[in-house]
Amino acid sequence: MLAASGELVTEKSGVLNLGVEGMMVVGAVVGFGVAFGTDSAIAGFAAAAVAGALMAALFAVLTLIFLANQVATGLALTIFGLGLSALMGKTYIGKTLPPVPHLHIPGISDIPLIGPLIFGENAMVYVSVAFTIAIAWYLSRTRSGLVLRSIGESHDAAHALGYPVRRIRFLAVLFGGAMSGLGGAYLSVVYTPLWTEGMTAGRGWIALALVVFSTWKPWRLLFGAYLFGFFSIAQLHAQGFAVPIAPEFLSMLPYLATILVLVIISRDAKRIRLNAPAALGKAFRATA
Amino acid sequence: MPRLRLEPRAQASRLATYLSPVLAVVLTLIGAAVLFAILGRDPIRAYQAFFIDPISTFYGAGELGVKSAPLILCAIGLAIGFRANVWNIGAEGQFILGGICGSYIALFCEPMLGPATLPVMFVAGALGGLIWAAIPALLKTQFNANEILTSLMLTYVAQLLLNFLVRGPWRNPQGYNFPQSKSFDGYAVIEPWISGTRVGLGTALALVAVAFGWFIMSRSFLGYQIKVIGLTPAAATYAGFSAKRVTWFCLLLSGGLAGIAGINEVAGPIGQLLPVISPGYGFTAIIVAFLGRLNPVGIVLAGLLIALSYLGGEAAQISLDLPVAVVGVFQGMLLFFLLACELLVRYRVVVGQETAQSAA
Amino acid sequence: MSSPGGSAAGVPRLELRGITKRYPGTVANRNVDLTVMPGELHALLGENGAGKSTLVKIIYGVVGADEGEIRWQGAPIAAHDPASARRLGIGMVFQHFTLFETLTVTENIALGLDDQRDMRALRRKIDETAKRYGMALDPDRYVHDLAVGERQRVEIVRCLMQEPKLLIMDEPTSVLTPQEVERLFDVLRRLADEGCSILYISHKLGEIMALCQRATVLRQGAVTAQCDPRQETSASLARMMVGSDVLAVKRPAEHKGEGEALTVTGLTMEPDDPFGARLDNISLALRKGEILGIAGVAGNGQTEFLHALAGERLAPRADAIRFDGKPAGHLGPAGRRARGLAFVPEERLGRGAVAELSLADNALLTAYLDGNVGAGMVKTGAVRHFAGNIVKDYNVVCAGIDAEARSLSGGNMQKFIIGREILQKPRVLIAAHPTWGVDVGAALTIHEALIRLRDTGAAVLVVSEDLDELFEICDRIAVMSHGRLSEPKRVADTNIDEIGLLMGGEFGDDKQAGTHAAT
User: Parallel, antiparallel, or unpaired: how do β-strands C428-432 and C459-463 relate?
Assistant: First the structure.
């Protein structure tokens, strides 16, 4: 969800960054490494965010200044990121971090069943939800969020009105990168506190799909992320319950669902124009 | 105050078109040297281990052909699509489906087909990839769904399908419960053509694909339509070209080629169906396509170079104890530099004064 | 006289001196002087390509002038951009709206303003302003839901919120119904009363005569006249716009052809996109061996009509469009080409040709049915030969047939495209604005080519805003306005004034035209 909401911001500004997987995994390795070295999970997260942003900066320079093709650059970023992270992570294979404590609010967390479920998770879960809500608020209520959206809609119109399209897109891309970094760090520092090569296992791509699935609306992102998460867990549990459907097919569901949603919203070309940032993926050339 | 300005060129610079990949390679080599140095390895030795050693033996040179075949097969199809602005990102999935369908023939039909097994396998592989690519094609032409995402999602579905088959119904009963199918035998095995190497059918098919791709793009009317659609869609509408037909063609072609690459990999180097049959060929082929500037000849060269980087990575792992991951870094760097140098083809860097926006 | 601080003494609100702007290959504005007084309704008149849009972009700061000076309330202004223009008090309502469809009215307006934080206060202010000027506007609706007239109101209100001292309106009524036009004029007159200056760009002579006090006429980038429209007739205004340059083309002998090459019957089509015009029961009979011209201001349905004729949009009934009597409405461009149709589109690079491809490659773009393709293969030799012929016969100045299309000048590119179509010996040729932005020599070549084609018995349909051109080469002429087509008249039986009148208003509705002419 962290990565997806970051990418949502990026895409809302009109930039398609396919490098989420790469940024996430770099964030994962950096987060792990720093957390390991400093014994501080927070430092790990911070460093991961910076690392993600740096990767994103690379992407931004190439696509916004060098006007490179966004699809190709994003893919390059992913491949690069996977390689780089594996390289950097060599020294950390096999080591583990102490688990990050779960949140425990006295009184509330002790309510049977609901308590631990909603309030007993580790801090980052709440942070991710908070971020998503914050982003939703930012995009719909603040002026700069409005400007960002307008740039994603029509960068020419925004430019005609005098807005710094490149600068805002640059920042949006950096933000997306930082968030992806955080997402990756969560995996390596909290979820399974160790490092293995390629541990993001395609979650970056899922994040990208999530953004489309949510039709670029942050609230739906929340729903979608938990839905995907549900499916991932479900297939593990299903094995325990001897459900007759093979687990792989259950795992397919999120992807098939995404395709289905994509088809439904694309059918009405007008709807897609309504929800998808119209200038997504198009390079912006300032005409003086 | 002098500023650097980007000025569009009136005519795409031919010099830059040929030079930019070369420049990108040079820059990457420099970057690689820096990388090696950071990792504490002598750059010269690293170069040697990476680039020279792998192909210094006859077998090694053959390996280059073997490794580049799937890349080139996929990249040709992808490049044609890219030129028409059809972005097939799911080549990996089509590769897998090709492997699956061809394996079906190999595992279950071999006895009855006899010598015809191998050709039928390849046809099945092509069909598998083709059908898998037909889905995004249908979704795009009928529902206007973005083919990047649909083809990508299908890649995951394909991988899961493969997992399922290999762990379940197709699992080798004598395989000690490992997730793998029976090894192919009998007529389903691809024999190397050049002894002393593993070069065989796959490499030949790749070359055929290259010729085919070149033929289509430079001589056929369809290739012309593809170029026009990719460059100026409005002109294509004006001319009466059917964007839908072109979309179908590009996706089916790249899917079919990826499928062939898939079954070739399974039946050849691997010899059985495993949960993982590709080290990301479908994705790397995208890099190959771009590196080769979407041009058949360029793709061959790019394919060889990238294949070399794969081999080099494996070799360096053994001789220099460098992690294989270096390959990914190298490839990514290469593509970055290429994309950046691409700029020089269309624009000229001008050192000039600030434009007189202030002439009022 | 309604405006205080009127035309006599007083500092001009806006003054342009010697504004010149060059683009590669052409001069968009040539030494333009313009003066607008406070509270004045000033018209900027001229044909397409005369330089009006460039000039106002310079005023608004989107584009910088190469030479010249801009003075605001007497003081010169230095480099500026739209934000500073807004701060000065200049507001602009663009012809092609700069609205964001997926955002609400309020959000759109907020983007056009600087530093408005509180959305609620903004909504209230939008409501007030709209009501004050008598425009109904709901701040919470999404722009994509609005009709075109309503969208324009959003643009206007956006400007009004800044309390502008100069409001620039670029072709505002091309998308409005007559009632909406009246309402707009009320708003504008009110604004002028309050001291705001209005710079009103338009072609529509009737409206300008009804609304404006002064007019500056541009032609090919330079100012050709300044006048008080209320004291002019549309004929005199049309003459100022169009000028009296005469090309050395002989008035062709009238040619009587046998039979109809192209017949359109009752063609009614809804527009594809929200800004498009609706085609309303259009009927037309184009005879063989004649050149028929369609005059009219851009935006009245010409583009849609051309797309329908070319086959890029299919007609609702197959027999709504007939070639040589046989139904063709269901055919796409390729099918129609096979029947002998050729089409020269308005956009040269970007539709008629691919900029990055060579001339040889571009020759194939529409000539693929002409023996240049065999068994799916391109016959390169034949194509190159064809391209060579085009270049030779039409005097196309280029660096050979391998030169990229975008390296050609506008005139030469147009000659190439026309040559390509004519050399395919079509039975019907449709040309859209064939000499727009083309130098005099090339225009001559093109006109002669069209006449020669007609003489071979083919039928030619020319859509243009250049009345001079139409009167020179056409046998018959009709006017397209608001999606409807007037009855074609023989050129010999009519004159520029009459056609100009038809262009400026609705036909069959003389009362309306009369109301606009009087004040």
Answer: parallel
Q: What's the first-to-final CA gap in chain A, in angstroms?
A: 39
Selecting from C64, C82, C100 the residue whose C-beta is nearest the C-beta of A150 gives: C100
Spatial separation of the C-alpha atoms in residues B215 and C325, rounded to whole Å: 42
Chain B CB contacts of A79 under 8 Å are 280, 283-284, 287, 328, 331-332, 335
Q: How far apart are CA C86 and CA C159, in angstroms?
A: 9
Which chain C residues contact residue B235 at CB under 8 A?
350-354, 365
Q: What is the per-residue pLDDT for A286?
A: 45
CA distance C197 to chain B (A): 21
Could you give the count of Cα atoms lying within 13 Å of B194 in the half-sphere of its Cβ? 14
In this complex, the residue of A18, A248, A262 whose CB is nearest that of residue B164 is: A248
**Hey, is C236 helix, strand or coil?**
helix
Determine the length of chain B.
Answer: 360
From the number of C-beta atoms within 10 Å of its C-beta (0-12, 13-18, 19+), residue B351 rates as: exposed
Q: Are B296 and B209 in contact, with CB atoms under 8 Å apart? A: no
C197 near C44, Cβ under 8 Å? no
pLDDT band at A280 (very low <50, low <70, confident <90, very high): low
Half-sphere exposure (Cβ direction) of A173: Cα atoms closer than 13 Å: 30
Selected residues 230-249 of chain B with any CB under 8 Å from a CB in chain C: 231-232, 234-235, 237-241
Residues in Cβ contact with A201 at an 8 Å cutoff, skipping those fewer than 6 apart: none
Kindly list the distances between the CA atom of residue C225 and the CA atoms of C200, C215, C229, C301, C406, in Å, as whole numbers in the listed order. Answer: 16, 8, 11, 30, 35
Q: Say how far apart CA B202 and CA B121 lie, in whole Å.
A: 13
Residues whose CB is less than 8 angstroms from the CB of residue C275 and which lie 6 or more positions away in sequence, other chains included = C96, C148, C175
Instruction: Locate C192 and state its tokens.
Output: 């002028």
- pTM surpassing 0.90? no
Backbone φ, ψ for residue C291 (5° rounding): -110, 120
**Residue C174 is which amino acid?**
S
Decide: C20 and B356 in contact? Cβ < 8 Å: no
Q: Write out pLDDT tens, residues C318-359.
A: 878 888 878 888 888 888 888 888 999 888 877 888 888 888
Q: Print burial letters for A64-96: b (CB count within 10 Å at least 16), e (below 16).
A: bebbbbbbbbbbbbbbbbbbbbbbbbeebeeee
C68–B234 CB contact, under 8 Å: no
pLDDT digits (tens, 9 = 90+) for C269-325: 877 665 567 788 888 888 888 888 888 766 677 888 888 888 888 888 887 888 887
